Amino acid sequence: MSTQFFRFIPLLALSLGGLFFVSPAAAQSLTSCTMTYKLSGWSLVYKQYDGLGNISCSNGQRAQVALASKSIGFTIGKSEIEGTGVFSEVRNLNEIYGSFVAFEGHAGATKSIDGQLLTRGEISLALSGKGRGIDIGVTLGALTISPR
């Protein structure tokens, strides 16, 4: 039963993602972007994770980025996560940089899973990852994406 609960937290976070996705009003040339990332850090009520990512867009734009995540909630542990992210459509890669509001669920005992829903205005991001560590929690905070 507890294993099912740990798997449920990130799935719940990802399923709520549809509530945050908003389609852009302008019908300009839009591009879809994805990100692979690696985050590591710790949590004890306050959660701090830092890492790196690579963004690729369908229009050919690419970028290496630095990631900084800070949040608060029911959380404890330490882990390293590798995963992928999918952005809502954007007009340009530069729209991705900045801070996103994040709702996150994570759990693990040696093998960790993490799911995050992020939004900033019209731009949304859904992250899903796996890794290793000992952790559990649900948090609300921010993820900052900056060029490297």
SSE layout and pairing:
Blueprint: H1 2-15, E1 33-57, E2 62-87, E3 98-120, E4 123-147
Antiparallel strand pairs: 1-2, 2-4, 3-4
The helix/strand class is mainly beta
Distance between the termini: 42 Å
CATH architecture: Beta Barrel
Q: Strand order, biggest sheet?
A: 1-2-4-3
Low-confidence stretches: 18-27
The overall average pLDDT, rounded, is 86
The level 1 CATH classification is Mainly Beta
Signal peptide: 1-27
Keywords: Signal
Organism: Methylomonas defluvii
Protein name: Secreted protein
Concise overview:
This protein is mostly beta strands.
Please provide a written account of the structure.
The protein has 148 residues and is mainly beta. It has 1 helix and 4 strands. It has one domain: Rhodococcus equi virulence-associated protein (Lipocalin, Beta Barrel). The chain is 9% helix and 67% strand. Strands 1-2-4-3 form a 4-stranded antiparallel β-sheet. A hairpin with a 2-residue loop joins strand 3 and strand 4. About 7% of the residues have low confidence. Keywords: Signal. This is Secreted protein.
Descriptors for this entry?
single chain, 148 residues, mainly beta, Lipocalin, 4-stranded antiparallel beta sheet, 4 strands, 9% helix
